[in-house]
């Protein structure tokens, strides 16, 4: 597939857990798309950008090779491909490029949260509690993330056998294929159903935006349109991410309590104070950069505020 040098290209998961949320975050950035599920490539009409829909495992490699400029993928997949690349490099297995892995995490996107963990029968979990990673010495561990696991074992100076499995890893101990597993966990219900206990989590993951090269130099040959689109997308994405973490807080309060109340709001800008019909009362509006918990609302009320409303924000442009 030849690449149009005028257009930005973003890799997304074709179908699966990340697909919908990845499209949703791009739509919030103003990218209008009607992707056809059978299509590999989808063009945006308003912006000079194309979306490439592929398997998530291929996304880090496509970004590292520069086939795509950006990609949205689980950090666990990024880390696995990164470790696999480094291991091949150490062994001298690389066919073409023997340089570093040219994809980096540019932004964490806050969805598809999970963790990569070691799990085993309860008896092993107790041993792990006592001994730490040393308990893994000589064990057999089934995993779909062999490179990440190998990296962890090396880091801890432990020798263990890794059995690579594509799926149903949680069945390995029951089937006698392995002593333990190393797999993705979100709620832990699959572990419970298979009588396994989480021993240690060594990678926290969420969807991330990957960027090719990770430095300005890699973009020197870009057309001005492509560069402008890249920068605009990043600014808009930051606006969406900031909005996700922010709340619009409104309340009424006695005029003389404004200062005390403002101090109670976490990560808030200077408040907007609006006069009300009652000359002793004002309305206070403020954007809080952090979630506002019940305890904060109760403290605001105790300080004299009332009619407290917390609203979600869709976009922010500073
Ligand atoms: P593909 O066909 O693209 O290869 P897949 O079957 O490998 O898809 P999915 O099951 O769609 O992948 O999961 C994609 C990602 O979702 C995982 O790599 C991980 O980042 C995230 N994820 C979040 N929670 C979980 C979970 N409980 N189990 C597995 N993946 C999870
Ligand atoms: Zn996959």
From TrEMBL:
Top-level class of the enzyme under EC nomenclature: transferase
Protein EC: 2.4.2.17
InterPro entries: ATP-PRT_HisG_long (IPR020621), ATP_PRibTrfase_cat (IPR013820), ATP_PRibTrfase_CS (IPR018198), ATP_PRibTrfase_HisG (IPR001348), HisG_C (IPR013115), N-reg_PII-like_a/b (IPR011322), N-reg_PII/ATP_PRibTrfase_C (IPR015867)
Protein's pathway: Amino-acid biosynthesis; L-histidine biosynthesis; L-histidine from 5-phospho-alpha-D-ribose 1-diphosphate: step 1/9
Residues annotated as domain Histidine biosynthesis HisG C-terminal: 243-315
Domain ATP phosphoribosyltransferase catalytic positions: 55-215
Keywords: Amino-acid biosynthesis, ATP-binding, Cytoplasm, Glycosyltransferase, Histidine biosynthesis, Magnesium, Metal-binding, Nucleotide-binding, Transferase
A molecular function GO annotation: ATP phosphoribosyltransferase activity
One Pfam family hit: HisG
Localization terms from the record: Cytoplasm
Biological role stated in the UniProt entry: Catalyzes the condensation of ATP and 5-phosphoribose 1-diphosphate to form N'-(5'-phosphoribosyl)-ATP (PR-ATP). Has a crucial role in the pathway because the rate of histidine biosynthesis seems to be controlled primarily by regulation of HisG enzymatic activity.
Protein family membership: Belongs to the ATP phosphoribosyltransferase family. Long subfamily.
HAMAP family: HisG_Long
UniProt xrefs under NCBIfam families: hisG, HisG_C-term
Protein name: ATP phosphoribosyltransferase
Organism: Candidatus Haliotispira prima
Gene (UniProt): hisG
